[in-house]
């Protein structure tokens, strides 16, 4: 029986939505359209991939299929982020921790998402503290969505770390 894999479905849906929002927003200018801000907020962790677009050794054209170079790298980031999210959701029911496993490995696996969440918390708060003057009332759209990602990436790994530490503590007592 065929089982739906979110690791493949979520990236497909989110890259399509991101491409439509970026196309709707049009080319970059001094003004940031709401569609671009919502796209950035929904896919906040993928914004890190836009930094690669400015790396000089790359010989990527400025426009590819009507999308700017930074938007292409952003969509690659969207693909990777949502693949990882889907993979975690797919494996959630299958992941059983061995009773003899150490606490260090599961905790270390949660540190990276926790750090990304802390970075996104800074970015989301920055959107409210330093609004742009060309569209003063629009930037909170991205800030709210970025703060939602930050909360998720802080709370879920934080909860997993607490559970692992408690499990290890209970094993020592029991």
Structure description:
It is built from 6 helices and 2 strands; from the N terminus they run H-H-H-E-E-H-H-H. It starts with 5 loop residues before the first helix and ends with a helix. It has helices at 6-25, 34-42, 50-53, 69-92, 104-129, 140-173; strands at 63-64, 67-68. It has a two-stranded antiparallel sheet with strand order 1-2. With 174 residues, the chain is mostly helical.
Q: What class would the helix/strand composition place it in? A: mainly alpha
H/E order of the elements?
HHHEEHHH
What's the alpha carbon Rg, rounded to whole Å? 19 Å
In round numbers, the mean pLDDT is 78
The N- and C-terminal alpha carbons lie at a distance of 41 Å
DSSP strand content: under 5%
Tally of helical runs: 6
Quantity of strands, as a count = 2
* Cross-sheet strand order for the largest sheet: 1-2
Sheet having the most strands: 2 strands, antiparallel
Shape: elongated
Spans of 5+ residues with little confidence (pLDDT < 50)? Answer: none
Report helical residue fraction: 55-70%
Descriptive keywords:
174 residues; 6 helices; 2 strands; elongated
What topology does this entry show?
Layout: H1 6-25, H2 34-42, H3 50-53, E1 63-64, E2 67-68, H4 69-92, H5 104-129, H6 140-173
Antiparallel strand pairs: 1-2
Helix pairs in contact: 1-2, 1-4, 2-6, 5-6
Q: What is the compact description of this entry?
A:
The chain is mainly alpha-helical and 174 residues long.
């Amino acid at each position: 029986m065929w089982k739906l894999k979110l690791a493949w479905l979520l990236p497909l849906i989110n890259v399509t939505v991101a491409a439509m929002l970026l196309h709707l927003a049009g080319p970059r200018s001094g003004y940031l359209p709401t569609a671009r801000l919502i796209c950035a907020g929904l896919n906040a962790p993928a914004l890190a991939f836009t930094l690669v677009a400015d790396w000089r050794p790359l010989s990527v054209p400025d426009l590819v299929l009507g999308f700017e170079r930074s938007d292409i790298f952003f969509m690659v980031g969207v693909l990777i982020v949502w693949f990882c999210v889907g993979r975690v959701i797919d494996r959630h029911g299958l992941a059983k921790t061995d009773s003899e496993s150490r606490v260090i490995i599961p905790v270390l696996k949660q540190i990276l998402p926790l750090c990304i969440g802390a970075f996104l918390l800074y970015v989301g708060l920055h959107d409210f503290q330093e609004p742009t003057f060309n569209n003063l009332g629009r930037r909170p759209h991205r800030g709210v969505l970025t703060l939602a990602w930050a909360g998720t990436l802080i709370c879920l790994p934080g909860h997993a770390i607490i559970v692992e530490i408690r499990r290890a503590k209970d094993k020592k007592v029991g």
